[in-house]
């Protein structure tokens, strides 16, 4: 029998990026896709809190070219314009990496995330940098990605740490979009935004 989802918050803060992004209460965020030169292929995002204050900005980083393939980047900035994390998709791979700041070196690796397909559904398995064995994921993302919703769980447990739903409209089809995210207490909400940015590529 499948485990029922648990809404019990994690017992202590989980500062994947920084303890500054962990709070003892739930955090609700609105992630708005901005129209750029080509919003579908190179989208930017503005992330706001419930009061309309900008919390993060997400920009499409430079595409790293090689003789064989290219790799994609997304960069997340805080409200002051400081780069807090760089996301990079490895060329010819379904694997993403998250690095602290704007340097993509091994010593700055925070986590890796693998997109897998199981029973006609896509899933994201996330491994923190300290989990070198990668036998069991530290977090996983499940849901109806094309249906516009997903849930982030702690490890392989039924404990929910965040939820995302997409507000659909005609503008969504034109390259715009709005995601509503609820991050549960003690969870690093900057880290959750990073995972949602990876999930968002499944729509592209």
UniProtKB/TrEMBL annotation:
Domain of life: Eukaryota
Signal peptide bounds: none
InterPro entries for the chain: LOR, LOR_sf, Tubby-like_C
A Pfam family annotated for this UniProt entry: LOR
PANTHER family: PROTEIN LURP-ONE-RELATED 7, PTHR31087
Family membership noted in the UniProt record: Belongs to the LOR family.
Record-given protein name: Uncharacterized protein
Organism, as annotated: Liquidambar formosana
Lineage: Eukaryota, Viridiplantae, Streptophyta, Embryophyta, Tracheophyta
